[in-house]
């Protein structure tokens, strides 16, 4: 993807049919947010912040997690009742989209996802 005329890329992922055990495990989310930045060439500037929460109408607690990277941020929100994750990676530096997606798919044990890539701050 050509990033010459934009500030950065914003990848959003909707993952479905994920492993419920991974979606409810604080350690899995924390470790993922701690390791992914380095794996995609980014620099972590805060330790991950992860919390459990119970969505309105849900029976199983989900987890929301966030880490700041020098280039911007990575966030994850899990919905175990639906076996779903909503995640985003925003960076002012180019990063390998497919490698990033592969890390999510491998960690959360799914092949089902939708991606969107937005060029942020685009100038022509």
Structure notes:
By secondary structure, the chain is α+β, with helices and mostly antiparallel strands. It has a single domain, classed as 4-Layer Sandwich (S-adenosylmethionine decarboxylase), CATH 3.60.90.10. It contains three helices and six strands, in the order βααββββαβ. The chain has a six-stranded antiparallel sheet with strand order 2-3-4-5-1-6, with helices on one face. It is globular and about 45 Å long.
Describe how the helices and strands are arranged:
Layout: E1 8-16, H1 20-23, H2 26-39, E2 49-53, E3 62-69, E4 72-79, E5 84-91, H3 97-108, E6 112-120
Antiparallel strand pairs: 1-5, 1-6, 2-3, 3-4, 4-5
Task: Name some characteristics of this structure.
124 residues, 6 strands, six-stranded antiparallel beta sheet, alpha+beta, 24% helix, S-adenosylmethionine decarboxylase
Separation of the first and last Cα atoms: 15 Å
CATH architecture type: 4-Layer Sandwich
Low-confidence regions: none
The CATH topology is what?
S-adenosylmethionine decarboxylase
Give me the secondary-structure category.
alpha+beta
Strand content is 35-45%
Q: Give the biggest beta sheet.
A: 6 strands, antiparallel
Mean pLDDT: 91
In short:
Helices cover 24% and strands 38% of the residues.
């Amino acid at each position: 993807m050509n990033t010459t005329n934009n500030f950065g890329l914003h990848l959003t992922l909707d993952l479905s049919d994920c492993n419920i055990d991974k979606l409810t495990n604080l350690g899995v989310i924390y470790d993922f947010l701690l390791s992914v930045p380095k794996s995609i060439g980014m620099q972590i500037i805060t330790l991950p912040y992860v919390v459990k929460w119970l969505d309105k109408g849900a029976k199983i607690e989900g987890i929301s997690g966030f880490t700041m990277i020098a280039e911007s941020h990575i966030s994850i929100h899990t919905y175990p009742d639906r076996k779903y994750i909503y995640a985003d990676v925003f960076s002012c530096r180019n990063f390998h989209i497919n490698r990033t997606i592969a890390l999510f798919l491998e960690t959360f044990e799914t092949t089902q996802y939708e991606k969107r890539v937005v060029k942020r701050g685009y100038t022509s």
